[in-house]
Specification:
Number of helices: 5
Radius of gyration: 18 Å
Length: 158
């Protein structure tokens, strides 16, 4: 039981560190990839950088919170270990592959595969739950982006 709790704390720490790095990289890339004016569009909802800035900032805040919470839990448990849990490596590989695949397969197919694989990696074994999550969540996100935000997501070959 103690070993599982330590593995969970280490997993949280590594996920938090990886997400923090991704958020910082995304925020630094906005002036080069999205809009040259970058941070000046933080409060302009019609600006091209509005959504990337807010989502990157939110990701940064949440991931730093995960890191701090896992460090606090780690200090409380007084257990140490430096090995990266295998689930974190698998999840990172799946996330990286989905980042590449989204341009060829499109958002819906890639997000469905990503959600299904992450469910399986982190222990969800009920096929109905996995299928519902993998099918409905990407459709809901697509509806939000198309219908409410008027933002087109990658369609790929489909």
């Amino acid at each position: 039981m103690q070993s599982e709790q330590t593995d969970l704390i280490q997993s949280d720490l590594w996920i938090g560190v990886i997400c923090t790095a991704v958020a910082v990289a995304a925020l630094l890339a906005i002036p080069f990839q999205v809009a040259p004016s970058g941070w000046s569009q933080f409060a302009n909802p019609r600006g091209a950088a509005f959504f990337p800035l807010w989502s990157g900032s939110l990701l940064l805040a949440l991931s730093v919170g995960i890191v701090l919470r896992s460090l606090q839990s780690h200090a409380a448990s007084k257990r140490s270990g430096s090995a990266v849990p295998l689930k974190v490596i698998y999840a990172g590989a799946v996330l990286g592959a989905s980042g590449v695949a989204i341009f060829w397969l499109g958002f819906l197919v890639t997000a469905a595969a990503l959600i299904a694989l992450l469910c399986l990696i982190f222990g969800e074994r009920r096929p109905l739950q996995v299928c519902l999550l993998a099918g409905l969540v990407p459709l809901a996100i697509e509806a939000l982006f198309r219908g409410v935000l008027n933002v087109l997501l990658p369609t790929g070959f489909f």
